[in-house]
Amino acid sequence: MKTRGLTVINWIRGGVDAFLVVSFLIMFGAVLLQVAARSFTNYSMVGTEEIANYAQLWLVLVGAGVALRFGKHVAVDILVSFLPGKIRFYISLINAAAILWFLSLVFEGSLPLIDMGSFQKSPALGLPMWTMYASLSVGAAYMALELVLSLLPGSEAHQPPESVVSDAN
C-alpha cells in the first residue's frame, strides 16, 4: 500500500512539473511572439498578453506548491531553530494547521468565482473565465497536499539546503 501511495504521489508531482513547464513555455512563447510582432511589423497580436497573464497565473499558483515541496518558501525560523526537536515539531504542526486553514479559505472563496466564471468570457480571446479562477482551487489544493506531505519524515522539505558558500575558503 505504501508503494502504491508513493507511486500516485510521484505521478501527481510529475504531472504538476510537466504542467508548469508547459505553462512557462506558453507564457514565454506568447511574450516572444508579441515582442517579435511589434518589432518586425507595425501590428500587435491580439490575445498574446492575455495568454501570458493566464499562463503566469497558473504558473505562480501551482508553482507555489512545488516551492513548498522543496521547502523554498521564505520562513523566519531563527528562534525556532534553537528549540528542541519535539517543540519544533509541535510548532510546525501549528504552523501547518494555520496554513491549511488559510488554504481552505482560498479554496472555498474560489468556488463562487468559478461559478461566476462559467458565464464570463475573457476580453480578448473569449476564453471561459472559470478556467482562470480554477487556478485558485487547484493551487490551494496542491499546496495543501504538499504541506501535508512535508510533515512526513524524509520529505524533500526536510533536506538541508545546499550551501551557497564554498568550503574552500
Q: Distance between the terminal alpha carbons, to the nearest Å?
A: 48 Å
Question: Given the C-alpha coordinates, what overall shape results?
Answer: elongated
Number of domains: 1
Largest sheet: none
Secondary structure elements and their pairing?
Layout: H1 2-40, H2 48-69, H3 85-117, H4 130-150
Helix pairs in contact: 1-2, 2-4, 3-4
Written account of the structure:
- With 169 residues, the protein is mainly α.
- The chain is 68% helix and 0% strand.
- α1 runs antiparallel to α2 (48-69), α2 (48-69) packs parallel to α4 (130-150) and α3 runs antiparallel to α4 (130-150).
- The longest helix is centred in the first third of the chain and has 39 residues, at 2-40.
- Residues 163-167 have low confidence and may be disordered.
What key phrases describe this protein's structure?
169 residues, mainly alpha, elongated, disordered C terminus
Give a brief description:
With 169 residues, this protein is mostly helical. The protein has four helices and no strands.
